[in-house]
Amino acid sequence: MLELLKNLLSWLTSPAQWSGPEGIAARILEHLEYSLLATLAAAVIALPVGLLIGHTGRGAFLAVNLSSFGRALPTVGLVTLVFLAGGLSVWPVYVSLVALAVPVIITNTYAGMAAVDPEVKDAAKGVGLRGRQVLWQVELPLALPLIMTGVRLATVQVVATATIAAYVSFGGLGRYVFDGLAQRDLVQVLGGAALVAVLAVVADLALGGLTRLLFRGRPATAR
Amino acid sequence: MTLEWGWFPDHADEMARLTADHLATAVPAVVLGLLIALPLAVLAHRVRPLRGVILGASNILYTIPSLAFFVLLLPVTGLTRTTAIVGLTAYTLVVLVRNTVEGLDAVPAKVREASRAMGTRPLRTLLTVELPLALPVIMAGVRVATVMSISLVSVASYIGYGGLGQLFTDGFQRNFPTPVVAGVALTLLLALVADALLVTVQWLCTPWRRGTSRQRTFMRRKAA
Asked: Pfam families from the xrefs (chain B) (predicted)?
């Protein structure tokens, strides 16, 4: 075990391992590219849907159950299926990652909107705000903390799951995990896994920092 | 992509076997997760300084890619079902611990104090007052953990205990989508059935929460 840790440490710290087109630095960039693009695409799809469901109150059943469906959908199966259907392209990776992230963001966005005090909405209407103004100026700011929680959760899951890109022959940190498995090289597998975990934690902390920045100046109760 | 419908009846036996295999990995993982999460959550709830540590640790477990987790366990538990179960258990912890802590936090302090004032000992208060009241939130966590585990079992196909995930590997290697579709559909179905079962269990376990939704809304309004 100690030997393994020592090997892992030297694997992670050797400069040769970090440079070049197949080095760790390049793999991290690839991993970030998949994760960020997928999360961004998911947010572009999910945020309007969640806001709409929350604002109109229609489709709440869908919003609540979608997250359960999303969790039940096996990502490995989905990526295999899209791969077999569409052939060798990076699409299966994005489709699976977006499918993973969309339900999480929709459900949390809806939850945030649903948690807005109805009296506050009434008051906003009472002072003459139109439906759209209520949405943008009252509901959205109040729902933002929960919406951001959803985005953070989705990001962590996407970063951790982006390893599957390597399963369908693409890059990212999953390369180390799958190549290591094929070569029976445990150090490489663990190194890749550790890097993914660190990346996920860093992404979570970065988004947490961003959230705090957004809510600077708000009273603690409204965060 | 075309499906070969003839494949389904021909492989009914295999699908049934893999479904049973799937459950044999997923169910023990959730049970084990619950057995570990409950004491940890009670500890996090009672001992404030430990709270951040326990919640943080279960969060970090969640960020490790599931496949790597299984590999990490290989030197310890080998190519056995235990590896798959232990890996999945680790994943259930994040939801189960968080929900249990939240459930316990939501028990009104007055209820706890009343129970103590009547002379009920702390352990008994926990078992007969706090945990039952926290049950809905805990069960919500169990539902999420179960659905997640059922979906994640397929990752363990890499070490040979993937249940229905075996169909993904099979289809992938033979460039044959039909088993993959079957695997995805059965996994979804299994998750749906398990979730419905848990909802029923929760309904049976919390008779005091029954009644029509209108009655419940009325009670809530009255309480507020």
From this structure: BPD_transp_1
Across the interface, whether the CB atoms of B177 and A84 are under 8 A apart is answered yes
| Measured distance CA(B97)–CA(A200) in Å, rounded | 20
- Is the ipTM value over 0.95, yes or no? no
d(CA A149, CA A157): 12
Residues A190, B184: C-beta atoms closer than 8 Å: no
pTM flag (> 0.80):
yes
Q: Which residue of A has its CA nearest to B185?
A: A73
Residue B65 contacts A, CB cutoff 8 Å? yes
CA distance B124 to chain A (A): 34
**Which of A71, A79, A157 to probe the B interface (max B CBs under 10 A)?**
A71
Q: How far apart are CA A211 and CA A214, in angstroms?
A: 5
Query: Which DSSP string corresponds to A23-44?
Result: SHHHHHHHHHHHHHHHHHHHHH
Two structure tokens written together for B154: 């397929």
Chosen from A80, A155, A202 to mutate, greatest number of chain B CBs within 10 A: A80
Q: Please compute the mean of the pLDDT values over residues A10-35 and round it to a whole number.
A: 89
* B11-223 homologous superfamily: MetI-like (1.10.3720.10)
Partner-chain residue, chosen from B64, B151, B195, that has the shortest CB–CB distance to A193: B64
Rounded-to-integer distance, Cα B177 and Cα B41, Å: 43
Residues 81-110 of B with CB under 8 A from A: none
Least confident of A7-21, A162-176, B63-77: B63-77
Domains of chain A, CATH where assigned: 23-222 (1.10.3720.10)
Distance of residue B36 Cα from the nearest chain A Cα, in angstroms: 22
Residue extents of the structural domains in chain B? 11-223
pLDDT digits (tens, 9 = 90+) for B38-60: 999 999 998 989 998 998 888 88
So what's the pLDDT on residue B209?
77
pLDDT digits (tens, 9 = 90+) for A44-72: 999 999 999 988 888 888 887 887 788 88
- φ/ψ of residue A215, rounded to 5: -100, 15
